[in-house]
Model the fold of this input.
Amino acid sequence: MVKVTINEELCKGCGMCADVCTTEVLEKQSDFKPTKVIKEENCIECLSCLEICPAYAIEHEDLTPTRRFHVESKVIEMTKKIV
Ligand code: SF4
Ligand code: SF4
Done:
């Protein structure tokens, strides 16, 4: 299973990662405290949080290559319909 880690020394507490996560893995904290990982088991490995984080504070370990391929395939199909 994927492991999601937020480096609390790098995290600015902006909460953008929690906002972009559709499966509620992450929880924004008040007063710009570091965001918490609360439901790691819900992670679908979309990596949206990783891409949006301005502080490079999020890490994912043990990603499932096939799942990532599935997500990217879906994104490619959706993109083809738009352009
Ligand atoms: S996007 Fe990055 S800096 Fe902002 S709360 Fe999430 S981990 Fe922290
Ligand atoms: S990789 Fe996707 S599902 Fe997992 S924590 Fe980040 S935004 Fe949420």
